[in-house]
Amino acid sequence: MAYLPLPTLILLCLLQWLPCLSAANISVGLSLSTTGDNSSWLSPLGNFAFGFRQLNNSNHFLLAIWFNKIPENTIVWYADGDNPAPRGSKVEFSTQGLLLKDPENQTIWSTSPSTDVADEAAMLDTGNFVLIGNDSNYVWQSFKDPRDTILPTQRLDLGSMLISKLTETNFSKGRFELHFTNGSLELNPVAWPTRFNYKPYYSSNTYSENSSESGHQLVFNESADIYILKTNEAIVQLPSWTKLTNPSSDYYYRATLDFDGSFIEYAYAKTSDGNQGWWPLRGVPQNMCLAISQDIGRGGCGFNSYCTIKNGRYNCSCPPGYVFVDPTNRFSDCRPTFRQGCEPNDGSGDPEELYEIKEFNDLNWPLGDYERLEPYDQTMCEKDCLHDCSCAVAIFGGTKCWKKRLPLSNGRFEPNTFTKALFKVRKGDSPEFVATSGSNKGKLTLLGALLLGGSVFFNVLLLVAFCLILFVLLKRKSGNYNFQDSTMAESNLRFFTYNQLSEATDDFKEELGRGSFGIVYKGVFKTGSGIAIAVKKLDKLAQEREREFKTEVSAIGRIHHKNLVQLLGYCDEGTNRLLVYEFMSNGTLANILFALPKPDWNLRVRISLEIARGLVYLHEECNVPIIHCDIKPQNILLDHYFNAKISDFGLSKLLLSDQSRTRTMIRGTRGYVAPEWFKNVAVSAKVDVYSYGVMLLEIICCRRCVEMEAEEERREILIDWVYDCYVEGRLDVLVNEDETALADKCRLQKWLMVAIWCVQEDPSERPTMKMMLHMLEGYLEVPKPPCSYSLSLS
What average pLDDT does the segment 683-706 reach? Predict the structure, then answer.
């Protein structure tokens, strides 16, 4: 038997593949059309196809790439989901790239591969469609221009992003984006239909100031593993991303940012008969209902709906009396099926005859309260909502009643939380309302008949209600509600006994911090909701401060703002003076600001704005203007989501309605105290502006306002050093080469100028908090600051 030489044998083996290889190459001048047989180009093994896909039996088509060997023909890339191609369109391959043209020969999309000339194109078996130049380099490829899906062998470089579809069948840009930027992978909701990003609901947190330790690529490798590759080639697994064991070559894989905001890796058996379909292997976030919790935006579901988790995936539902705006989309907003608001026809009768309460356990909308009532029982909470034309739902928990108006956002099912959602709905079948004069007239006639027919019963109800109200007032007057002072009672603050707080804090065991007027301890109520609290035990007050203590506590108890720590109650028993606040799980701003690694620039920006908004409320928007007098990082607390809240009103000074200045003893902390404190003159809210300016510089630079052990003498006093660097244009030194901050150089420079304005020695030259907030937000221009500035260390 004669044997062939080895090179000849290899050549013969390769020859059998030549037809397949040539089938994958597309020559310049070829085209595809929405009509006819030439509607797609296949990869060599036929795993993927590139071409036109008809949308929902319509006259519009999507230029796309899809899995070609499975019944679903799942799409993994598409040209432009917002503008699908009409019937009669075609895509042409020229040396300039791909050109998608409508029937009038107008270009509606193109690859635009820069100035490089494309000699040929190919649909690869990896799912990557490529345009190849004369040097065999890719001048454009779909892997570098992804939509909502990535595939094995695909890598996302810094600056890459995925955008979800709007719905399962609508390929328009949706409500979620995946960003791989600044070294981290982040999932963001967007303010659809705009592309404005809200804060992320998932992050890999792989950014590092050391560029070699920072994330460099998001890798989906051949073994179906997904991870972040650092610049130094180290591999980092995604947080909460389950480790994949024993991946098989018998499966197709893809990872998709789904239209519901979940980033999930799927698998599909190549031998499947079509009954199995894609099944999820792993995904993030683990609980979408809890992941998104922001004070603006829809959340995971639409407005007025709520989120539930079932079989690891989340779903959205409408509360009673509400239906989906789009019945085909369970992630759309919900709308009431009855008229709401304060129209005359709604107020012409007894609300308790028009409305009723539907109770649901463990359902909550944690944000958007416009009023909180305490102490209240459930009956009082229901009545209050029924008689308030702005109230759509009340959340009741323990002794608290939170009232909310539409639209509701971030609703979710929270099992075992002992909260109840009390929905106010129309009595009866809640028919759809029609806003016409005829229908209104009919409703008024029906309402009049109901009121007339039930007048006897209605009068009896009024009598019973009057007796109940009288009984409650008499009990409150007799002291059964434990209010020690009528002024305090008006603020809805709860009175605690010393023994109650001693038991809650385990005899004041766990210390959270110390201030100039007392020590703060952590506590937990042993009964009821088990809520965590922070108890401030004040030092013994001078006799002349007793009345001031009650006045201040009363005023603080009446203010509510999302960027102020909520005062829950107090103890005024014998010589004991204690204040009870909501517990903030992430401690003080100082804890993260002066530690390593330093907080991300974008987080520092958000915290700065939140503090400013809280101060604007204190100075200008609450009933009794308040000067805080001790603004510093130690008095800014951070909740579970790192939302900033101003705390420690123990030093605050109340202003009467006709006051803009007040005289008081020197208050504050060294380094943050405004110069006018030492001049024996009346102080104004501008002292808080000064302190905020110092703190803003600390937030920008991530260092304390006074560092006496600094390497250079000029760096010891922060505002001196900042001003020198500002004049010299050395912004990079101030932020210690923080790439994210330097990439936001315009904001950085403006904010430094705002801070310099805030620390002017003359209070009249400082902006008000509202003016400063508008400057920080970019609504007002920031003028060049003067050469003078001041620092007080006394």
Answer: 93
Q: Residue 434 above 60 pLDDT?
A: no
Strand ranges (E), 89-172? 90-94, 97-101, 107-110, 120-123, 129-132, 138-141, 149-150, 154-157, 160-165
The reply to whether omega before 193 is within 30° of 0 (cis) is yes
pLDDT digits (tens, 9 = 90+) for 226-262: 999 999 999 999 998 987 777 788 899 999 999 999 9
**CA-based torsion, 604, 609, 613, 616: positive or negative:** positive
Strand, helix or coil for residue 8: helix
Nearest to 691 by CA among 707, 715, 675: 675
Q: Which residue has the higher pLDDT, 725 or 193?
A: 725
Structure confidence at residue 345 (pLDDT): 46
Residues of the chain with CATH 3.30.200.20: 486-582
CATH 1.10.510.10 domain locations along the chain = 589-777
- Whole-number Å distance between alpha carbons of 628 and 622: 13
Q: Which of 784, 781, 590, 602 is nearest to 704 (CA)?
A: 590
pLDDT of residue 492: 61
User: In angstroms, rounded to a whole number, what is the distance separating the alpha carbons of residues 561 and 165?
Assistant: 36
Whether domain 589-777 has CATH 3.50.50.60: no
Task: Please say if the pLDDT value at position 425 is more than 60.
Answer: yes
pTM over 0.85: no
Assign domain 486-582 one CATH number from 3.30.200.20, 1.10.10.10, 3.50.50.60, 3.50.30.60.
3.30.200.20
DSSP string, 278-346: -EEEEEE-S-HHHH---SSS--SS-TT-EEEEETTEEEEEPPTTEEESSTT-TTS-EEESS--S--HHH
pLDDT one-digit tens code per residue, 112-124: 756 788 999 999 9
Residues of the chain with CATH 2.90.10.10: 16-145, 146-197+215-286
Closest CA to 584 of 599, 598, 564, 603: 564
Quick one: average pLDDT of 55-63? 89
Q: Tell me how far apart the alpha carbons of residues 242 and 238 are, in angstroms, rounded to a whole number.
A: 8
CATH topology for 16-145? Agglutinin, subunit A (2.90.10)
Peptide bond into 597 cis (omega under 30): yes
List 762's β-bridge partners, or say none. none
Token digits for 104?
Answer: 């009038």
Two structure tokens written together for 693: 């300016």
Alpha helices by DSSP H, 491-545: 498-504
For residue 713, how many other CB atoms are within 10 A of its CB? 10
Sign of CA dihedral 273, 276, 277, 281: negative
- Give catalytic residue positions: 630
At residue 716, the pLDDT reads 82
CATH (one of 3.40.50.620, 2.90.10.10, 2.60.40.10, 2.30.30.100) for 146-197+215-286: 2.90.10.10
